[in-house]
Amino acid sequence: MATCSVELFTPRTPQGIEELSSRIEEFAKRGPSFIGINGTDASSALAIAEGIRTRHCIRPQLHVQRTGSTQASVTALLDAALKVGTRDVLLLGGNPETLNTASSKLPGAFGSTAEMVAFVKGTYGDQLRVAVCGFPCSAAGEAGEYAADLAELVKQVAAGAESVVCLPTFDAR
């Protein structure tokens, strides 16, 4: 079932966060199923997620980057997310050159999004709803080409991902 959603990027300044907070009211009027929150500042993302959930009764979805993340950093982030009532996460893969490379095999790092999904589901079970990214035919995902990306997506779903968020499709053919 297709649903409407909104994706926000965390502002870098307190003024930006204040401005975004005023705009969320307008987003909420459009009735999205969830609001995705993407950004590198975890404390801002968590504060925004908590505000969306408590003030607008909309499910916030926290975006979690695989690249540069470790089991310890993901656990800390997701523990904090659960404390503010966020139960939805979108696990984001890396570029093709980061899939199962030597740098992704550092202690606690994830070699693929499927590994990250398995870790999150194994650690949190049904406490979190896990989504992953799907890539339309004209876009390159984590594996770098369409057939390989579909194979990676199958692994992610097998590892426990419950939904797939498709990137924008620019060429519907």
Low-confidence stretches: none
Largest sheet: 6 strands, parallel
Distance between the termini: 21 Å
Query: Rough shape?
Result: globular
Instruction: Please give the radius of gyration in angstroms.
Output: 16 Å
Approximate strand percentage: 15-25%
Query: What count of helical segments does DSSP give?
Result: 5
Helix and strand element order: EHEHEHEHEHE
Percentage of residues in helical conformation: 25-40%
- The secondary structure category is alpha/beta
- What is the count of β-strands? 6
Biggest sheet: strand arrangement: 1-2-3-4-5-6
Q: Summarize model confidence as the mean pLDDT.
A: 85
Report on the architecture of this protein.
The chain has 173 residues and is an alpha/beta fold. Helices cover 40% and strands 18% of the residues. It has a six-stranded parallel sheet with strand order 1-2-3-4-5-6, covered by helices on one side. α4 (113-124) links the parallel β4 and β5. α1 (14-29) packs parallel to α2 (42-56). It is globular and about 40 Å long.
Give the topology, please:
Layout: E1 5-9, H1 14-29, E2 34-38, H2 42-56, E3 59-65, H3 71-83, E4 88-92, H4 113-124, E5 129-134, H5 146-158, E6 163-166
Parallel strand pairs: 1-2, 2-3, 3-4, 4-5, 5-6
Helix pairs in contact: 1-2, 4-5
